[in-house]
Write a structure and sequence with these properties.
heterodimer; A: 746 residues; alpha/beta; Dimethylsulfoxide Reductase, domain 2; Barwin-like endoglucanases; 3 domains; seven-stranded mixed sheet; six-stranded mixed sheet; 26 strands; B: 177 residues; alpha+beta; Alpha-Beta Plaits; four-stranded mixed sheet; two-stranded antiparallel sheet; 6 helices; 20% helix; 28% strand
Chain lengths: 746, 177
């Protein structure tokens, strides 16, 4: 066995005091200071931010004092993402700043006495190594052999740097590991992607259909707020989920579907709407293409047919179809967000898109509104060099309908293969722990071993940092500027993030790192601004605002420039598709050789003694990013394994019993997970929250807590349309004793 | 004046934002909390019901904690808010034992602490931090003596229950069901 060029290195102790430990309960220490709670007062100023704990990016106000103490973070009342109310993660964002496990100073991988270690470095030293290596790769292999993985706001600056070198291989796992199939499917159908925040008009809907989307457990703030408003207004909620989710408990109809059969249900709903003539005839005639083909196509997909697949009673399928039709057009069959499940995900989301078209909900009040955004122009700079190659050249003809860079494809193309012109040689990783993010860990590690250079920019010693050549400690969002938020919404708006406090330790913002790197790489011309304040002020001036104004407002709304939120009655609409219509029959998919209309395919079922591994979200956490946040671990510090009582009985499992898991490929969980026996899950599957089971001891609160679903996801069901990684085709069995022989590497 | 809170179990998703907002607003030390989430599941798959409640001190009209406090540290404040004066608390723990709702905890600085209905905010015309932060708007706070207050209105419109009424404490948290 060859030795690893790249051993996993623990982030070494950096001489800053140990983690604060909360005093134990009932500790009546002698001489303890007695005082009423001191309420912070006027000495606390407020500064604007938008949240970095998740992608919803709610705008808020940070209350801090001159000593660098942050009291609290509250939502900005003018912000349409949050309406003045942050979610628990945003409210607990202060924990990201206070976490004493943070990365504290730049680190460089060195070999000493045959052992690889991280050595603390100055910023100049660390950035020199980064600049040298990126230049070396560019000279020897071409700049396009460097890729950027990013899921953080600071990544935009690194994206600019990459483009300045001549590479456009900028990828976010939020596409191929998350919402990609949805975007490809809706683009094929409506000529438009959903993007973020979703323009679902939930507040005015009469019927909200959730398919595996567990709103309320995933705290997509604005949507959860609107769902609550819809409940108040008496909207019908229909939830399709093998698990009795929080959303299911709020629903008039819960459809406890057999896992992996959702597409059969969707086709049956389409069948019922057409057969019973419950679809919006005017809308379909005016706006859609391919209705006759669709009608023909779904003829045999009756509720009775679906019953045998989904285990859902035919009358239940008809009744819920009727509910949707009654609410039409104020009905939303929600496109979901994390939709990379079974590899036919684009086709499943196509069925969702088609269903919405039949119900006439697109462009209608209570369905999908038309969003707008206020874009800020780029600070003037010379045109970026045109890249000679892109990620697509590694696999010509593959994933033509992927509209963003496919992260797992970059990973695959990093592992050398003789049939490829381009192998990636360098990775820049910003704000995404690829060890937990990408499925098939061994593949990721093999790719990493083949890299010539990897720099990781993060705030925390996430597992990915252990494989880096250079680790750059980014300050948290509470300590830095970033580009303004310019996401779409009902009203176009922008939000400012500015530092509330000075960066702790020896950490820096990404804009600063990039500006320095650009200088070291002779790319100054592309970054002509003096500092980020000048950059932001210039951008804001172009839309009639200023940095000074934004510091005061936090969020600024602009009037809509174009059409109304909804279609006018009988409005002629040209959709951005090949036919100019909503394509029930997709000409794009047909041209690429895929099914132009969705076809149900049977997915593999768990072998005896195994259970389908389903995973989801906790409202207190975002991926693995928050797993060590002291405020949030105080709420939820580990994941548990949901097990049906009958299954628990078969295995003689007790509530709270720690067990280990082994998947279909013999991969065992590093750590145990506690059993939660609950009626809320089917007998054929188990469920856990994603993002736990951290193996880096430097994450002192997260280490060894629960199980990482990612490490058990070794079977990847690739979506041939857009390269998405279907992750719900993995099955696990229980190990009551620790199956791991040696202590895990930390 | 009679402050009370109504919490809509039909809207609460149990995200615990109320818990975090309370902790930061009131500097509650990590590891402790003044409010918390309870989830109750009933039935068998797939005939199930789930009730989610955000719970805290019930600010009872007939509070055993006030009655049993030997120093008067636990007391009724304006609008019936039950408070603890830290300086008068000797940490005997009698109130903790007497509370049917387990709403009190020993603060590491040497006194018993609990929900104050954010009296410091209420005095300024604001609502408690938990009410203001809740993404589902599932909490209503106000004066029950005012028939037009938000909380009075919602209790007129909706069915509700109180927790452990048999304890006879006359709790002032109303759970909309």
């Amino acid at each position: 066995m060859r030795s690893n060029r790249r051993d996993f290195i623990k982030i070494s102790s950096m001489g800053i005091g140990g983690a604060a430990v909360a005093a134990p309960a009932f500790n009546w220490a002698e001489g303890a200071i007695k005082a009423d709670n001191k309420k912070p007062g006027a000495e606390y100023k407020r500064t604007s931010t938008y949240c970095e704990i998740c992608f919803w990016k709610c705008a808020g106000w940070v209350y801090s004092n001159d000593e660098g103490h942050i009291w609290k973070i509250e939502g900005n009342a003018d912000d349409p993402h949050c309406n003045g109310r942050l979610c628990p993660r945003g409210t607990g964002g202060v924990g990201m700043y206070n976490d004493t496990d943070r990365l504290k100073t730049p680190l460089i991988r060195k070999t000493k006495n045959g052992k690889q270690v991280f050595e603390e470095a100055t910023w100049d030293e660390a950035l020199d190594v980064v600049a040298e290596n990126l230049k070396k790769i560019a000279n020897e292999h071409g700049p396009e052999c460097v890729a950027l993985f990013t899921h953080g706001s600071g990544g935009k600056f690194f994206g600019d740097l990459l483009k300045a070198t001549g590479s456009t291989n900028i990828t976010a796992p939020s596409f191929a590991q998350c919402r990609g199939p949805r975007e490809t499917a809706f683009l094929a159908t409506y000529g438009e992607i959903i993007a973020s925040p979703e323009f679902t008009d939930i507040r005015d809907t009469k019927c909200l259909v959730l398919i595996g989307s567990h709103l309320g457990e995933n705290m997509h703030n604005g949507q959860v707020q609107e769902m609550s408003e819809a409940i108040d207004k008496g909207a019908t909620i229909i939830t399709v989920d093998p698990r009795y989710s929080t959303a299911a408990s709020k629903s008039k109809h819960w459809l406890p579907i057999k896992p992996a059969t959702d597409l059969a249900l969707l086709l049956a709903w389409i069948n019922v709407l057409i057969t019973e003539e419950w679809y919006d005839k005017d809308y379909v005639e005016r706006y859609t293409y391919g209705f006759d083909q669709l009608k023909n196509h779904v003829q045999s997909f009756t509720p009775e047919w679906a019953y045998g697949i989904t285990t859902l009673a035919p009358e239940m399928i008809r009744e819920t179809a009727k509910e949707m039709a009654n609410a039409s057009p104020a009905v939303i069959v929600h496109p979901g967000r994390h939709v990379t499940w079974y590899g036919d995900d684009t086709q499943r989301l196509r069925a969702v898109a088609i269903l919405n078209a039949l119900l006439g909900s697109w462009g209608r009040k209570g369905g999908f509104y038309s969003p707008e955004k206020k874009s800020l122009p780029s600070y003037p700079h010379p045109e970026f060099p045109k890249p000679k190659r892109t990620w697509r050249d590694a696999h010509p003809g593959k994933y033509n309908l992927a509209l963003e860079v496919v992260s797992n494809d970059i990973c695959d193309s990093t592992i050398p293969s003789p049939d490829r012109a381009c192998n990636f040689k360098g990775w820049i990783v910003n704000g995404t722990n690829l060890i937990s993010t990408l499925p098939d860990l061994n593949n990721t590690l093999e790719a990493i071993q083949n890299l010539e250079f990897m720099v990781v920019i993060d705030t925390m010693p996430m597992e990915i940092t252990g494989y880096a050549d250079v680790v750059l400690p980014e300050c948290t969002y509470l300590e830095r500027y970033d580009y303004c938020r310019t996401d779409q919404h009902r009203e176009p708006n922008i939000a400012l993030r500015m530092p509330a406090v000075e960066p702790k330790y020896n950490t820096k913002p990404s804009w600063w790192m990039v500006k320095k790197l650009a200088s070291k790489m002779e790319l100054d011309d592309f970054f002509p601004w003096k500092d980020v304040e000048e950059l932001l002020d210039w951008q804001l001036n172009q839309v009639g605002s200023s940095l000074e104004e934004m510091k005061r407002l936090g969020v600024k709304k602009f009037p809509r420039e174009y059409d109304d939120l909804y279609f006018f009655k009988n409005q002629e609409v040209e959709f951005n598709t090949n036919t100019g219509k909503i394509e029930l029959y997709s000409t794009d998919l047909a041209a690429e050789g895929f099914d132009p209309m969705p076809v149900y395919t049977k997915h593999k079922e768990p072998p005896p003694g195994f259970y389908r591994l389903n995973y989801g979200r906790s409202p207190a956490h975002t991926f693995s990013r928050t797993a060590n946040n002291p405020n949030l671990t105080d709420l939820v510090d580990e994941n548990v394994l949901w097990v049906n009582p009958q299954v628990a009985k078969d295995w003689s499992l007790k509530n709270g019993q720690p067990i280990w898991l082994e998947n279909q490929d013999g991969v065992k969980s590093k750590f145990p997970i506690k059993v939660r026996i609950t009626e809320r899950i089917r007998f054929d599957s188990v469920y856990m929250v994603h993002g736990f089971g951290h193996s880096n001891k430097k994450l002192s609160r997260a280490y060894g807590k629960g199980v990482s679903d990612s490490e058990l996801i070794t079977k990847v069901l690739l979506d041939p349309v857009m390269g998405g990684t279907g992750m719900r085709g993995n099955f696990v069995t229980f190990k009551l004793e620790n199956p791991n022989e040696e202590e895990v590497m930390s | 004046m009679r402050y009370a809170m109504a919490i809509d179990t039909k809207k609460c998703v149990g995200c615990a934002d109320c818990v975090v907002a309370c902790q930061t607003e009131n500097n509650v030390p990590i590891g402790h909390c003044r409010d918390w989430i309870v989830e109750n599941t009933a039935g068998t798959y797939p005939q199930l019901e789930l009730e989610i409640r955000s719970e805290r001190c019930n600010h009872c009209k007939n509070s055993p904690c006030v009655r049993c406090c030997p120093t008067g540290a636990s007391h009724y404040s304006e609008g019936g808010i039950v408070l603890v004066t830290g300086d008068d608390c000797i940490g005997c723990g009698a109130c903790i034992a007497s509370c049917p709702y387990d709403a009190r905890y020993p603060h590491p600085e040497g006194y018993v602490d609990k929900c104050t209905f954010c009296d410091h905010r209420v005095k300024n015309g604001q609502k408690p931090a938990c009410v203001d932060v809740c993404p589902t708007h599932c909490m209503y706070f106000g004066d029950l003596d005012d028939p037009n207050s938000e909380v009075s209105n919602i209790l007129k419109k909706r069915k509700y229950k109180r927790l452990i009424p048999e304890a006879g404490t006359d709790p002032q948290l109303y759970f909309l069901i």
